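Lay summary. Proteins are chains of building blocks that fold into shapes, and those shapes determine what they do. In this project we predict the shape from the chain. Here is one chain we studied, written as its sequence of building blocks.
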Amino acid sequence: MENQIVGEAVAVKAIQRFVRRYSLFQEERNRVLTMKYGKQQMMLIRKRMKIENWIDAEVAKLFNGNDNNGVDIDVDVLLDLDSVPAKRKFVFDNLQRSHCPASMDKITMFLDEMIDQLNTL
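And here is the predicted shape, written in a compact code that computers can read:
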């Protein structure tokens, strides 16, 4: 009986040691992963994510709050396009393909704001 208690105590201590080491490993791993990008790069990533989220939210508004509207506007493609008219046409065509129910005025306002947002990148 006493040997069993001693054995259990040893096992508990071994598990606690393992958990402590694993926790330290996870902390170190998380620290390394979060330090992958510099401050400037992280600022740019956050800015880009903010614009992508804004575009998604505004497109949902154009579809009367429907998030499952089938429109996927790729910011990389937009940034690669050379001119503002090409960017507007790309987004407008995506909206039309998904039969956007919004008025032309709302779509035009969205396109104007989107171009302004993209120019900040």
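What the prediction tells us: The chain has a mean pLDDT of 82.
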